[in-house]
From TrEMBL:
Homotetramer. GO terms for molecular function: fatty acyl-CoA hydrolase activity. The keyword Methyltransferase does not apply. It comes from Microbacterium stercoris. This is Acyl-CoA thioesterase 2. It comes from the Bacteria.
Length: 254
């Protein structure tokens, strides 16, 4: 991330991988709730500690903490479950253009080289259904939708794909808070930080195939903004639900 910070999604994904290594292969994560405590430094290694809180017949809970220099930078609890039968329903996926109908990275950075690093040199590919907000905001709105995926295949391990989906969910979720107030990422002096993150996995999916990430911000106040999102596969299956609160400071409002 800019300034040498560790991307929060990386910590989320690695936390799930660390916790999963204390469990049988057929028990998958269904929820994670965590707090980002300090910014991580990309120049330093991360150490993950996992506590076995509970193991039941169908559910297991694990506490995960990520450390740098002996200080925790992330703390969370994840819950894992066997595949069990039960009721099933979901909200339908909204109708939006297909990702192939939207501008890819080459078109976006063609006349904006200053946006090249965050768009082209990124393992996450994003295509905005609305216009992007890298340099400016065309229309204020607390809602947006993006197609997203990893740029390269990562194999067939379903646990790895759930961890990678957690990784993806932290990349654009903040944008609904910014978009609601007409604030672009390039705003001079703006500072943002993820405060917490929650994700519920509903159904298996691949992180290296297109997922529609439908997002909204129901509230912002006191230098904080709340964002929520749902991820769908191209055929309309609801994969995950996400919630995150961020710290947002803009010089004109300080």
């Amino acid at each position: 991330m800019p300034g040498g910070r560790v991307f929060g999604g990386q910590v989320l994904g690695q936390s799930i991988v660390a916790a999963s290594r204390t469990l049988p292969e057929d028990r998958f994560p269904h929820s994670l709730h965590g707090y980002f405590l300090r910014p991580g430094d990309v120049r330093k290694p991360l150490t993950f500690a996992v506590d076995r809180i509970h193991d039941g017949r169908s559910f297991s809970r694990r506490r995960i903490q990520a450390f740098q220099d002996g200080e925790p930078i992330f703390s969370g609890i994840a819950s894992f479950q066997d595949e069990d039968p039960g009721f099933e329903h979901q909200l339908p996926m909204p109708e939006v253009p297909e990702p192939e109908q939207l501008d890819g990275p080459a078109a976006i950075v063609a006349d904006r080289p200053e946006a090249s690093l965050i768009i082209r040199a990124n393992p996450i590919e994003v295509r905005h259904v609305e216009s992007d907000i890298y340099l400016s905001v065309d229309e204020k709105s607390p809602r947006q939708a993006v197609w997203t995926r990893l740029r390269r295949p990562i194999g067939d391990d379903p646990m790895l794909h759930r961890a990678a989906i957690a990784y993806l969910t932290d990349f654009t979720i903040q944008e609904t808070v910014l978009r609601a107030h007409g604030v672009a990422w390039a705003t001079p002096g703006m500072r943002t930080a993820s405060l917490d993150h929650a994700i519920w996995w509903h159904r298996p999916a691949r992180a290296d195939e297109w997922l529609l990430y439908v997002q909204e911000s129901p509230s912002a106040r006191g230098g904080r903004g709340l964002a929520q999102g749902q991820l769908y596969t191209r055929d309309g299956r609801l994969v995950a639900t996400v919630a995150q609160e961020i710290m947002l400071r803009v010089p004109d409002l300080a």
